[in-house]
Structures are given as structure tokens and as C-alpha cells.
Design goal:
By secondary structure, the protein is mainly β. It has a domain of about 55 residues. It contains two helices and 32 strands. It has a four-stranded antiparallel beta sheet, with no helix packed on it. A four-stranded antiparallel beta sheet has the order 2-3-4-5, with no helix packed on it. A hairpin with a 5-residue loop joins β20 and β21. The longest helix is centred in the first third of the chain and has 53 residues. The chain is globular. It starts with a helix and ends with a strand.
Length: about 400
């Protein structure tokens, strides 16, 4: 009988032990599932907030500051970092967002060419022989050539690549910001073609050139990349590192978005190239419609077409730096400019503007009370600087 009692006590203890273990396991699982649910709910809230923020709409705009500034006849406004560049045939100046003139450069030019790369701008005259190089603080250098200037590109460090006309040949020379010659090269129509466009990477190490020439009577474009850094020093004298041929098409535009990504626009396609040392073809998209305009920043490229399908007179196709088409938007505005800033884009005319997120959702459409020559998004996402005939105004969306 005693052994039976002991057996029953032993079973009861085991039952209590098993029961306690099950309770502990159940408690741990409950905590785990609550944690997972909490994380999922938090993630859902974050996604909802992000989507709500991304698709938010503005209700009104107000002018929060206005500074009297008279636009000089024949002058042009351009965004220059967080400043405003004004240039004409007689000179150029740089203003900050308070309307204060930071520097003034006088010159006499018939057809001024302006190229901006980050906080550096180069200004020279087509067919002239002098290029002025400035940053936001003032002049940092000057390039003087002994041959007529046809085109040039400036890097963010002040290095300038210049196309020079020399009778039967064309020279492409590289200068530092002080005007010292770094590299000299030459080309001819029967050798490699005529350089249609050039672009320097922001760090000044890569140069992209679009050449047009005839091959057995047929039109052909070649894109060549040259490396002026350490990698290029170990190669041929012209520092050529990669190139691509395109038959039956013209490539009038090529540009470095950043030091490792370039894009080129032909009359029938857009091409993207990637690489900080030896740029390689990363993407190529054939286009069925004729390109009307090209707009870009360091993240996105926008191509405008006449819209043959869907709503709107025009269609804006937006590509990221990898060559992926991320959105397409139809619109009717007779635009003068399209600007990208962070994950938004802005379509503007001199009397109207529309604000969209990068996927094409409209956030606001408004009318200007006066003719606007420049519309510049500010670092704060809901603020814009506008230049009119008589003032610099700071506009805020609410």
C-alpha cells in the first residue's frame, strides 16, 4: 500500500512539473507573438505614415519673404548650389537667398556658354579664347586658349575640358582651374569624328565624349570614355578606357550624373553607363517617340515627349540612375523647365507650376501672380525661391 501512495505522489509531482514547463513555454510563446505583432503593427504604422507623407497634398502657398531685385534686360537666371547665378553678354554675378551679391565678374561675350558642376561654374564665349572659373565665393581661375572655343565642361574641382577648333582638326584639351594645361589630344573627321558633346565627371577624372562621323557613307556615333586618374596613366597616351558605337543615330547629349554614372541621349534611345574607372554600358532603352526635352539631376533623368496616348499634351518619362523607368506622367502645361529635388519633381511655366512626388501623384497646382523666370526648390522641401522681373521671393507651401 505504501508503494502505491509513493507512486501516486511521484506522478503528481511529475504532473505539476510538466504543467509548470507547459505554462512557461506558453508564456514565452505569448511574449514572442506579442513582440512579433508589435513589430508588425509598428512597421504598418511607419508604412502608413510614409505613404501618407509621400502622397500628401498642399492646400495653399504663401510668400514669406520678398527682396526687391530688378532683372537686367538680356540676363538669364540659373540655380547655382543654394544660390542664384545671373549672366548676360556683359558679365555674371552670384546672389545668395537673401539677395546679397557674393561676387561680380565683368566680361564681353557674344554667345556666352555656361556650365555648372556642383558649386563651380565655368563661363566662356563660343568662338572666344577665355573661360572664367568661379565657385560660390568668387573667381578661382581662368583658362586662356590660343584657338577658338567650341564647347567645354567643368568638373566640381575646377578642371575644365575644352573643345578647340583648329582648321582641319579638333583639339580636346584639359586644364586645371589655374589655366595650366593637363592633357592635349586631337581628332579629325576622318579619324574618330567630330566631338558633338563632352562631359567631365564631378571629380574630374573621367571624360565622356560623343563623336559623330561617317563610316562608309553611313552616319555613326561613338561614345568614348577617358580616365585621367591613376588607372588612365597606365594606358595609352589619350587615356582611353572604354567606348561604344551606335550606327544610324546621333547622340547630341552626354552627361555625368555623378562620378560613377553617366547617361547619353540619342534621337532614338537613352543609354546609361556605370563605373568610376572604366565606364561600362549599364542600360539602354529604345524610344518610340521623338524627344522634346531632357531634364536631370544627380538622381533622375526626365525625357519629355509629345503624348500620343493617354491624357495630356506631353508625357514625362522618369528614369533613375540605373536606367530603370520609374514613372510616366502626362501633362498639358506649356512648360519652360522641369526640376528634380529629392523624391519630387516640379513642372513650371512662367505663369504656372505643379508639384508631384516622383511617382507622378500631384501635390499642388498653382498660378503665379507675375511672370517667373526661375523656380528653385530649397533644402526645406516645402520652400521655393522664385525670381521675377522685380523681386526675389521665398514661397512656402502649406
Amino acid at each position: 500500500m505504501a508503494s502505491i501512495r509513493e507512486y501516486l505522489r511521484s506522478r503528481a509531482k511529475e504532473g505539476r512539473s510538466i504543467n509548470y514547463k507547459e505554462r512557461i513555454r506558453s508564456h514565452k510563446l505569448t511574449i514572442f507573438y506579442r513582440g512579433v505583432l508589435g513589430v508588425a503593427l509598428a512597421a504598418a504604422v511607419v508604412v502608413m505614415i510614409f505613404v501618407s507623407w509621400e502622397n500628401r497634398e498642399y492646400e495653399e502657398c504663401v510668400i514669406v519673404n520678398s527682396i526687391p531685385i530688378n532683372k537686367v534686360e538680356g540676363s538669364t537666371y540659373l540655380p547655382f548650389e543654394n544660390h542664384i547665378l545671373t549672366y548676360s553678354k556683359d558679365g555674371a554675378n552670384c546672389m545668395n537667398s537673401k539677395g546679397e551679391v557674393l561676387w561680380n565678374q565683368t566680361y564681353e561675350m557674344q554667345n556666352p556658354i555656361v556650365d555648372i558642376n556642383g558649386s563651380v561654374v565655368a563661363i566662356g564665349d563660343y568662338n572666344g579664347r577665355v573661360i572664367y572659373v568661379m565657385d560660390t565665393n568668387g573667381r578661382i581661375g581662368e583658362v586662356t586658349t590660343n584657338l577658338p572655343i567650341r564647347d567645354f565642361s567643368v568638373a566640381a574641382n575646377g578642371v575644365v575640358a575644352v573643345i578647340l577648333d583648329d582648321s582641319k582638326i579638333t583639339r580636346i584639351n584639359l586644364y586645371d582651374k589655374a589655366g595650366n594645361g593637363l592633357v592635349e589630344s586631337e581628332t579629325s573627321m576622318d579619324k574618330s569624328g567630330y566631338p558633338v558633346d563632352i562631359s567631365l565627371s564631378p571629380n574630374g577624372e573621367l571624360l565622356a565624349i560623343s563623336y559623330l562621323y561617317l563610316d562608309s557613307g553611313l552616319m555613326k556615333t561613338s561614345i568614348a570614355f577617358h580616365n585621367f586618374g591613376e588607372v588612365g596613366q597606365n594606358l595609352s597616351s589619350d587615356r582611353f578606357v572604354s567606348g561604344y558605337d551606335y550606327h544610324g543615330t546621333i547622340v547630341p547629349f552626354i552627361h555625368f550624373m555623378n562620378s560613377g554614372t553617366a547617361f547619353a541621349v540619342a534621337d532614338d534611345r537613352i543609354m546609361f553607363f556605370s563605373g568610376t574607372e572604366k565606364p561600362l554600358s549599364a542600360a539602354e532603352k529604345l524610344l518610340g517617340d521623338k524627344i522634346q526635352s531632357v531634364f536631370y539631376n544627380d538622381q533622375y533623368v526626365g525625357l519629355v515627349f509629345l503624348n500620343t496616348e493617354g491624357d495630356g499634351k506631353y508625357r514625362l518619362d522618369i528614369y533613375d540612375a540605373g536606367g530603370n523607368l520609374i514613372s510616366s506622367k502626362g501633362f498639358d502645361m506649356e512648360y519652360t523647365n522641369i526640376t528634380f529635388q529629392k523624391d519630387e519633381f516640379f513642372i513650371c511655366s512662367d505663369t504656372e507650376y505643379s508639384i508631384y512626388n516622383i511617382h507622378g501623384t500631384e501635390r499642388f497646382n498653382g498660378q503665379f501672380d507675375e511672370i517667373v523666370y526661375l523656380f528653385v526648390p530649397q533644402e526645406k522641401s516645402n520652400r521655393f525661391l522664385i525670381m521675377t522681373q522685380n523681386a526675389m521671393r521665398l514661397m512656402e507651401m502649406k
